[in-house]
User: Fold these one by one.
Assistant:
Number 1:
Amino acid sequence: MLRWSINLFRVFGIQLALHVSFLLFLAYEGWEGWREGGWEGLVGSLALIVLFFVCVVMHELGHSLTARRFGVKVPRILLMPIGGMAEFDHIPQQPRAEFLITAAGPLVNFVIAALLYALFGVPKGWPALNTEFPDTWLGLAQVLLSWNVTMGCFNLLPVFPMDGGRIFRAGLATRMNYVRATYWASLVGKALALGGGVVAAYFWHNFLLAGLFLFIFFAGETEYRSVLRREREDAYWAEMARRLAAVAPVTPESPPPRLSDCYHGPN
Ligand SMILES: [Zn+2]
């Protein structure tokens, strides 16, 4: 499903792509804007979305450019209505690397917010939920500031595989093996995602947020399974190599292939 996308352009050599559902989202938001304020409303609403997603791309670039320093290849950043996703060829299993790569994303949001704060300040009463933003360019900059703070904080919730959950796993991985750390991080993440989903749907009637928590719930489970599968494949090949070595010694120049590096199926 993630293949249904449209390539835009490259930033720092990384392909930026839009998921097809993003077009539906733009059409819906544009229509809502038009209903409220005609053409001006339509343009205003689309401009807000573009600015918001520029910040999302910068957040993903924070992860991606830090990951590259640890030898990770980043072929694509995919934008979906629920946010962005940087695709890595692998996730380093060193806690320090995972911590730095992960923290760089929300850090970008806080830096953007700090710059906007220095330039434009905040309206009276911010950050209360019912803060009124002026209907001017100044108000737009302040809305963007507020969004960046929200984006940074929301991503830091310890709900694996969101950024906070990954930082939690990196912390756990300093005390236990990587699979166990992923297991506990995803278990805590799933419980919190379930709780968040119930609160969002039942108390706040925010079904978009509830849907997002549901997505995170399944994403956590999927990533745990893929870590487990990779670990089992590695153990399998290590065992094969041990058996082969008993028959014909394996030279350092010919390590056993990894199943996950050889297989290119729709997984
Ligand atoms: Zn992030």
Number 2:
Amino acid sequence: MMDVRLIAAVGRRGQIGLAGRLPWHEPEDLAWFRAQTLGHVVVMGWRTARIVGNLANRIVVPWLGEDDPAKFLARTAHRFPGRVIWIAGGAKTYRAFMPHVRRAVITLVDYDGPADVWMPPLWEGAR
Ligand SMILES: NC(=O)c1ccc[n+]([C@@H]2O[C@H](COP(=O)([O-])OP(=O)(O)OC[C@H]3O[C@@H](n4cnc5c(N)ncnc54)[C@H](OP(=O)(O)O)[C@@H]3O)[C@@H](O)[C@H]2O)c1
């Protein structure tokens, strides 16, 4: 049984990204992200993975956008049995994997500034 979870930090109007990065500086949320994902698999889209790079004590598996999400997940779960598969963004990646997500961990950031990437609705296409 795959344990697929989504983790995101979202501004008050749904903002998640600005100029390829997070729109805010929130060390506390980065520590939360680290605590949640330690020892597990972290799936990131191409754009996010390029900036974030490797994460200590996590298995980062970039999603290149070409693989079918269901097949990608089945393969990843087979390679890393017993680990949670965390879907860690960005927007395109959240949207693609949403139908397979069973749990979502969202930080609501008290941020009202600009963004160029937005959180897709969690319930669209979800089981
Ligand atoms: N707040 C949060 O919790 C959080 C979490 C993660 C990321 N983010 C932010 O979200 C933003 C990134 O999200 P995103 O939806 O733009 O991207 P993404 O989901 O990280 O990556 C997918 C994007 O990569 C592009 N891509 C894939 N392969 C490529 C290649 N070979 N060459 C060039 N482009 C390629 C795709 O472009 P096409 O669509 O054109 O194919 C697609 O838009 C960043 O600002 C990041 O900081 C926020």
